[in-house]
User: Fold this.
Amino acid sequence: MIQVTHLQKYFGERHVLKNVHCEIKDNEVVCIIGPSGSGKSTFLRCLNALENAQAGKILVDEFDVTDPATDLNKLRAHAGMVFQRFNLFPHMTVLENICLAPMQVKKISLTEAQKNARELLKRVGLSEKENSYPQELSGGQQQRVAIARALAMEPQVLLFDEPTSALDPEMVGEVLDVIKSLAHSGRTLIVVTHEMGFAKQVADRVLFMDDGQIVEEAPPQKLFENPQNERTKVFLSKILK
Ligand code: ADP
Ligand code: MG
Assistant:
């Protein structure tokens, strides 16, 4: 389970996360929506210590993220992240990209890493691309490789930061389908997204963030059809027209 209490984050003078509280259960699928600049990415990045908060407590299963003694490699193996811009290593093949972290961090052999990587590539529908370099792939394919790479660490929690925002529209579906296939299979998924259809279909709960706060949270049907907070209503009226 993930538990966030009294989380405060500043960038210099700018107060970016304002006393955020949040609990997320094992196996839950949570989508985070909200306007640009509201703190969605920063919140996600705090969960696997890519950003340090100034105050508050973050527990991700057995990891106390805000404890300086926490092993960040282990935390990030447990809570993996998929970014908007894939971040694959351009000089490495697809297979090498996927094998790297399990070999370096989990110390598994090349043979085992490759075997796992091939299974994952099959799962994201890219078996025939194992020897390609990232720039030889479409954006949608690169993002599916990035998801396979995250899965290679066998994370219990997967954090997605606008995984389809950098894609051409015709590639959004293939990436969302892969994410959907991961839902409710023993892993917790937290997805920052502007894809409301996806959120409606897959999320157990949607969090609406605005100005550094989780303003409202509810199951998707409720949040989209009957938002309670004025700020949620305004945001949804802009994007759902
Ligand atoms: P969102 O993902 O909802 O668009 P972010 O979490 O990226 O929002 O940003 C929240 C606020 O924090 C914004 O005002 C942004 O400009 C600021 N911010 C984000 N990252 C940094 C940084 N590394 N340094 C300074 N300010 C930042
Ligand atoms: Mg963002």
Observations:
- The two ends are 35 Å apart (CA to CA).
